[in-house]
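dumping this here so i dont lose it again. seq + smiles for flavin mononucleotide
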Amino acid sequence: MKLIGLVGTNSKKSTNRQLLQYMQKHFADKADIELVEIKDLPMFNKPADKKLPEQVTEIAAKIEAADGVIIGTPEYDHSVPAALMSALAWLSYGIYPLLNKPVMITGASYGTLGSSRAQLQLRQMLNAPEIKASVLPDEFLLSHSLEAFDKDGNLTDLDTFQKLDAIFDDFRIFVKITEKLSSAQELLHKEAENFDWESL
Ligand SMILES: Cc1cc2nc3c(=O)[nH]c(=O)nc-3n(C[C@H](O)[C@H](O)[C@H](O)COP(=O)(O)O)c2cc1C
């Protein structure tokens, strides 16, 4: 199974990136997880000719080729980071790489709530007409993320990594189930293509 781990931040140092790196290593025998960065993308600016930056089309191609995507989001002021919001706007501007794509959301934060509000907001964004991803109902929240890893980058708390293991196993099943939900796929794709916020 080929998965993309989308690092939802433009910070150089990030516990969300650390979590995705941990998953990449820890689940190596279950899936091939490629980490993809959004940190060098320009801020979304709605080019009138709909010409997308090369980096955006590269990320879109990787997502399209993958069986699923894991998005790791920090939380700023109860929201997803501006960098992630901007990346999703690019990834829905005349292109539809996330359509019906199985997505697992993870989030890490320094406090106790572990990015729960950002995750809810991300869920809502992923349901937008030009994104329409298939999002796993379970959520994985990593609270106190600065203290969560040992020096080798492994999660130290047994309950926490057992929970991540279980959710990831469910995600692998979810990816397989989503592949089978193909009856409406062509229609949904046409609907997304015909949808245009600019001519409502
Ligand atoms: C401006 C700002 C706002 C923040 N707001 C929240 C918040 O609403 N909820 C939360 O759990 N953490 C909040 N934090 C703390 C973040 O969890 C933490 O700084 C960090 O971004 C965690 O993710 P990272 O390690 O991947 O960067 C905030 C931090 C900053 C700098």
